[in-house]
Amino acid sequence: MSLPPVPPEVEEYFAALDEKRREVILPVFTVVRESMPDGYELMMGWGMPGWVIPLSTYPDTYNKQPLAYAGIAAQKQYNSLYLTGLYSNPELDAAFRAEWAATGRTLNMGKSCLRFKKLEDVDLDIIARAIAAIPVERFLATYERIKPRS
């Protein structure tokens, strides 16, 4: 299976980072990209590269924007990996946190934002499994259950 090309805007985002920052964030981006289930689309949104369910697949969103599944960003003091699939699924979130704790690494994570400064701060295998665990259909079923009603 070959991966779709990286959109030019995403390439520009990474090209604009200094080399040290790219050395940390690009391996995480690559693992997420390679683990992404079919149906999610890579794009620039909310100021960062991220994978979404495109409006052509699911147009009935509360904010008329594509549904964000995962995103990655270089912040001022750290990097962020947004795992919204975990945020919306308490069982998967708890399993992710337990698996991470078993590695002995410190987990610096809010509700969906995994923060890291060095590549050694992250477990790429756990990230890959977390990303791959939620196909589009499952994410949409969760969204339908919890989406804001207007």
Description:
- With 150 residues, the protein is of the alpha+beta class.
- The chain has a single domain (8-54, 66-143), classed as Aspartate Aminotransferase, domain 1, CATH 3.90.1150.
- Helices cover 42% and strands 19% of the residues.
- The chain is built from six helices and five strands, in the order ααββββααβαα.
- The chain has helices at 8-15, 19-35, 84-87, 90-103, 124-132, 136-146; strands at residues 41-45, 48-53, 67-74, 79-83, 113-116.
- Strands 1-2-3-4-5 form a five-stranded antiparallel beta sheet.
- A hairpin with a 2-residue loop joins strand 1 (41-45) and strand 2 (48-53).
- Helix 2 (19-35) packs across helix 5 (124-132).
- The longest helix has 17 residues, at 19-35.
- It is globular and about 40 Å long.
- The model has no long low-confidence stretch (mean pLDDT 92).
Secondary-structure element sequence? HHEEEEHHEHH
Termini distance? 40 Å
Mean pLDDT: 92
What is the number of independent domains?
1
Strand order of the largest sheet: 1-2-3-4-5
Proportion of residues in extended strands:
15-25%
Number of helices: 6
Q: Rg to the nearest angstrom? A: 15 Å
| Gross geometry | globular
Number of strands: 5
Low-confidence stretches: none
Per CATH, the architecture is Alpha-Beta Complex
What is the SS-derived class?
alpha+beta
From the 3D structure, determine the CATH topology.
Aspartate Aminotransferase, domain 1
Main CATH class: Alpha Beta
The biggest sheet, with number of strands, parallel, antiparallel or mixed sense and barrel status, is: 5 strands, antiparallel
Helix share, percent? 40-55%
